[in-house]
Specification:
The structure holds two protein chains of two kinds. By secondary structure, chain A is of the alpha/beta class. Chain A contains ten helices and ten strands. Chain A has a five-stranded parallel sheet with strand order 7-6-5-8-9, with helices on both faces. In chain A, strands 3-4-10 form a three-stranded antiparallel sheet. Chain A has a two-stranded antiparallel ribbon with strand order 1-2. In chain A, helix 8 packs parallel to helix 9. The longest helix of chain A has 21 residues. The termini of chain A are far apart. The N and C termini of chain B lie far apart (41 Å). Chain B has one domain: Aldolase class I (TIM Barrel), CATH 3.20.20.70. Chain B is of the alpha/beta class. The radius of gyration of chain B is 19 Å and the shape is globular. Chain B contains eleven helices and eight strands. Chain B has an eight-stranded parallel sheet with strand order 7-6-5-4-3-2-1-8. The mean pLDDT of chain B is 95. The chains are: A alpha/beta, B alpha/beta.
């Protein structure tokens, strides 16, 4: 009678810095390569999405007003925490996807590096996206980027961790708070990523992660008037059209990419200031010049 | 009620009973009519040192037309606007003839720590300036010191000074320490006004809080006060009104309170003449939920006017 029972983690949502179960009470099994159930993931409802947006709205002023330097530090802290749990993440990816252990490990390392890259950009993209404008008069005229607002993230199925990290980090870097819908097929890495957020000085509500069915959550996300931008990837043509028409109501910034697995590894393509630019608005300020 | 009858409150049961009202499922048409009813019961309130005439006017406009857009049937106006006495004239000017009342806090709100003559003058001034309703605070110091007859006498004098204006008696339950005291203060306030002449339904309200003290309105405290109102109604046939104030911020909470009123006092009390919410930020959440039901779309806070 010495056999020990495994203590299996309950996978929950991540809303407002807490880990609630879905209000709908629904879940679906997460299977390993041999189709054995290793966990159950919450299937978030539109009410969970609404709650997540409330949390993101509460968190928005503090994140917006945090200095760019601090936002960079926090993104770097996420990288540190992820680095420390590489094995667990690689294991989660290798167990629940087709990836080999080596490929899974590489994806985790790239995710760490991706966070570091955005951490670096967070107090530098302003120099690329902002400018000083020549004007006819004794004035300086500056254009500075400001965060757009709450951003909804729709992560593709694969790569389940790297794509999610990339899509979240861009808006975070811009100063937006995020409500993310994780990979529908392999949500386990996203569940672990919420633990990274919870332990790396990311203020509660700044990042909210839901697991569930993309098709169910797209409509309420796209039509929610509090959400100001959407960052999604690899959606079907009808999903893209649906998002664009619902988003038109409150003039959301809609940024929908289509990338192959290899392209997610390309820093220049998916992690440059041009991946931050869709989530900023330009503010122009006049200032009298000294001369 | 019989003099000297002392109601003791079972605090475990009152909490459990109050929590039970939050378990009701209210959906679709019931929800939408509940939200509309809650809007019509609002006392839109601004009680800040920095209140200005324009802030009060803007609050009055919000009271008359809570939502700028058009929906069918139209969203009702709120019940009253609640301000400090110095802003009563401003509010009365905007609200005259609209059916929305002007309520004024008085009697040295929120502390009530002033000589009685000053507190009574405060009431008279507010009534003369055009207040339809007076929100008075009881003398908590005297109440807690056991000088109950003094508190009752002061309430009687304030009620006389109201001269036809409706009176809401603020018990400031957050300072009364125990549930027993809440019940005792409710009975005392109701008896004080009842003993000074014939009361009509809705002439007098009892109100939980000033909104300046935490905790403000809670469901158990409101339930105790509703029970005092019920017992008085069963004894005399007169309907006293109820106003929870402060701390009710979400539409869901408001619906819970309406359920509690319905299940404690019955449908007769589900009218702005007998039940009010003292709140300001609640308005936009009620509107947000109402519009969600109509449009199917989640609204943003910035879709609604402030104030």
């Amino acid at each position: 009678m010495n056999a020990r029972l495994d203590v299996i983690k309950t996978c929950k949502l991540f809303i407002g810095g807490a880990f609630p179960r879905t209000e709908s009470g629904r879940s679906r099994p997460i299977l390993d390569g041999d189709d054995r159930v290793i966990a159950h993931a919450c299937v978030a409802s539109r009410k969970d999405l609404r709650n997540a947006v409330e949390a993101a709205r509460k968190a928005a002023p503090a994140w917006l007003n945090a200095s760019a330097y601090l936002r960079g530090q926090i993104l770097y802290r996420m990288a540190e925490m992820l680095e420390g749990r590489r094995d667990e993440f690689a294991n989660a990816i290798a167990t629940t996807t087709d990836a080999t252990p080596a490929k899974a490990r590489k994806e985790v390392e790239q995710s760490v590096d991706r966070l570091v890259r955005f951490a670096g950009w967070s107090d530098k993209f302003q120099q690329i996206l902002g400018c000083q404008n020549p004007v006819n008069g004794p004035y300086y005229n500056f254009t500075v980027p400001q965060p757009t607002g709450i951003t909804g993230v729709l992560a593709p199925s694969t790569p389940s961790l790297l794509a999610l990290v990339t899509l979240i980090a861009g808006p975070l870097c811009a100063g937006c708070t995020v409500v993310a819908v994780a990979s529908e097929d392999t949500p386990l890495p996203a569940v672990l990523l919420s633990e990274i957020c919870a332990t790396s000085d990311v203020p509660a509500g700044t990042v909210n992660i839901l697991t569930g069915q993309r098709a169910e959550l797209i409509e309420p996300m796209a039509s929610h008037r509090e959400i100001a931008a959407i960052n999604g990837a690899n959606l079907t043509p009808s999903q893209r059209t649906g998002i664009q028409s619902a988003a038109a109501d409150n003039l959301k910034r809609v940024h929908l990419a289509k990338h192959t697995e290899d392209q997610w590894e390309d820093d220049e393509l998916v992690a440059s200031p041009w991946n931050i630019e869709p989530f900023v608005e330009s503010k122009t300020i006049w200032h009298p010049s000294a001369t | 009620m019989q003099p000297g009858r002392n109601h003791l409150v079972d605090s475990v049961m009152v909490k459990q009973r109050a929590a039970a009202f939050t378990k009701r499922s209210i959906k679709t048409e019931a929800k939408s009519s509940g939200l509309r009813l809650a809007i019509s019961m609002l006392d839109l309130t601004t009680l800040e040192g920095k209140d200005s005439p324009e802030k009060v006017r803007s609050l009055c406009r919000k009271a008359l037309r809570p939502y700028e857009g058009t929906i069918d049937p139209p969203i009702p106006s709120v019940a009253a606007v609640c301000v400090y006495p110095s802003h009563v004239r401003t509010a009365a000017k905007v609200l005259a003839g609209t059916g929305v009342n002007v309520a004024s806090v008085a009697t040295g709100f929120p502390s009530g720590q002033y000589p009685l003559e000053v507190r009574l003058r405060d009431v008279t001034a507010a009534v003369e300036a055009g207040a339809d309703e007076i929100d008075m605070v009881i003398n908590r110091g005297a109440f807690l010191a056991g000088r109950h007859s003094e508190v009752a006498e002061e309430i009687r004098q304030v009620w006389q000074a109201c001269e036809g204006a409706h009176l809401k008696i603020i018990l400031e339950t957050g300072e009364l320490e125990t549930y027993d005291n809440v019940r005792r203060a409710s009975d005392l306030a109701i008896e004080a006004v009842d003993s000074s002449g014939v009361l009509k339904d809705g002439d007098v309200f009892i109100k939980t809080s000033t909104g300046k003290i935490s905790p403000a309105a809670t469901m158990p405290v409101t339930l105790i006060m509703l029970e005092a109102i019920r017992d008085h109604y069963l004894d005399t046939g007169v309907r006293i009104g109820m106003k929870p104030a402060g701390g009710i911020k979400t539409a869901k909470q408001a619906l819970h309170y309406l359920v509690m009123v319905k299940e404690t006092l019955g449908d007769e009390w589900l009218t702005p003449d007998l039940f009010r919410f003292g709140a300001s930020s609640l308005t936009n959440d009620l509107l947000r939920q109402l519009l969600k039901g109509i449009t199917g779309q989640y609204m943003a806070m910035h879709d609604f006017s402030e104030a």
